[in-house]
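Reviewer 2 asked us to include a model.

Predict the structure of this chain.
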Amino acid sequence: MSQARTNARKAAVQALYQWQMAGQNLAEIERQFLEDERLKDAQKSYFVELFYGVPKNLDEIDQTLSEFVDRPVDTIDPVERAILRIGAYELLYRLNMPYKVVLNEGINLAKDFGADGSHKYVNGILDKVAQQKRAVEFKAKGAR
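Predicted model (structure tokens):
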């Protein structure tokens, strides 16, 4: 797994957080990230895919998450919500990416950006999404 892709996810969490909080235009936020060189060590194409892919597929992503969270998605801590949305996006739309990679990245993002213990919450939710949406892969790998 490349560090550039991990950095793209980190930047996407920050950009989605900004979008969720301020509701700014996506292109404007992307421009800020490019200008501030926050994407310098990131895989820009993957950042763009995540940053535009999550809002584009928001209804399906939030619907998927809502099956496994204990409260309305909109009321989840904004940092955790951004991380969960990225993880759900990858589980739903990046089928070539192993679910374990998605879970691992989500846990690490939560450790980097979330509150104490939020990585456990993120892991629990994304694990349930993976079991449902990647059932074939889950069974094939003998997960658990």
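The chain has one domain: 3-140. The mean pLDDT is 93. We have added this to the supplementary material.
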